[in-house]
User: Fold this.
Amino acid sequence: MARDNFLKSTIDIIRDRVNNFCSNPACKISTRSAHSLINKTTSTGIAAHICAASKNGPRYDKNMTVVDRVSGTNCIWLCCNCATMIDKDHKKHPVELIFSWKTEAEKRVSGNHGHVYLTSNEAKDKFELQLIEKKLEFSKLLNCALSPTTEIETKLEDVEYKLKNIEASYDQEVLLRKEIEETLYTFKNKLPYDAFYKATNLLYEGQTDYAEKILNEFIDDNESNMVKAYIASGKISEMKFDYKKAFKMYEKASVVSESQPHIINHAAQLAYRVGLYKEAFALLERGINDLDEDVIGKAIYINQKGLIYRSMGDYKNAISSFEESLALVSGCGSQGDELNGIFDSIKSNLALVYIDQGKYSLGMDIYKELIKSDTESHGSNSLQVCCSLSAIGTIHEKNNNIPGAIESYEKAYDISVNALGKNHPGTITHLNNLALSYISSHPKKSEKMFKGALKIRLEQYGEKHLLTATVLSNLASCYAEQNKDLKSKKSSLRALAIMLDCHDEKHPQALRIRHNLALIFSKLGNKDKAIEMMACVADDRKNILGHDHPLTKLSIGSLSQLGGSISQEQLNVFAFKNSITTIKHLNGQKNS
Assistant:
């Protein structure tokens, strides 16, 4: 059957009008590249007919003249895949839709005229440079701040993570930009013509400010129906590390969308990460009230509340939340692996609080039960079993059952190495735990393991990170065991400086470092300093953990050995003096 084909001159013009890019707005790939031969190029593009070139073809228009059928008006430049797609599924791709693709593609290319075209590698390099600038900005804020906020710390951690995983981070960034662009296309007919094309063009270059401005203006005018716009605007804010603004956008989306669980989950997690506990609680409570019959959804929200309570040191409410969440899941009966996984996760969270409180037998019972069920479901060498073994090792260690701790830590480490590799962050945690259990019996071996763990932690997270501080603190304990007291003091002060940059001096890890540091001062002959510091630690642990907690008793016992009893009035004076001295010393460290 005769076909009304395009002239070469028409094809050349249509191709050039879209600069060799596929006109499908969901594709937009480049269709022209250099051939291996110097005098040739390779093309994967096609000048496709909008209305078919011959009778019985897709979208054939019998009223169209031959001149109209072979004109540029009836021609669209597409990649091979999209050209095939529109003909194979022509009902899904009517004439009006394809004409709109053609018009939009030509306007997009015209709007980009004069702009620098970036290859994928160049765009990735630009993305990396932007992250490096952000890292310098956040590092400067942390170093200059008298009291660094959790939000700035979180931003810096996220930037550092993206820089260490630049390929995956860039791919995620591109996907997010596409999602935002799709949102803009949803509202295209309701947005100002120039504003829409400017926003999509800038978004392609990774510049999100103008797209955010357009979305926010549209939200202001159409607030009741703009769930998608809120979420897209929130994603832009999150991409720019403006977490508080992102939370507000997600929070509004959750209200407008009648509290969709996935939106509330994301918003609450974001609020929790940057220390917006009150806001996270409020969002979760509203979600719980709106879920009606969704019992599992409620259980997940209540479990999140428990995690927030635990991070705040409110163990009573944390336990109450986890127990309530477990009761809800248990009431659903057996419903497969997903439900069992949620149940086990909540039980593990409850066990961790018991360990925090020094109720080791309760924690041990839960983890033994978890190992039994996880072995049956996932196998004895699964990561689920690995996590429970590590927790059991911690319980053994706190009960001074060192052989039991070593056995559990070694099993956990071996599973993690086989599943994740030697340098994976999770594996280094198990290595750190194992090294800690060797301190008394094999201090040299322990020291070597800690130094290896510290080297990798510094490569992965840098100096100013809690996981780096943990390894340094444990290395200090290892030095102390070998009577290398000056090295122990140096590592402890370094760990404490990191800890106080991230949290206050009453954080459980900070208290542990301060307790050990007091013992080091005593060994170095500075008894007064040791007593002052240990008195503060004993008082802080008593107020936070209670008088009967094993760690409180340990600090009170150590205080007694260092200098006997001490009055409350003296304790208050020492607490004040020690706080000021520590701050002065650490400030001096920063400036050196």
Remarks:
- The longest strand covers residues 45-49.
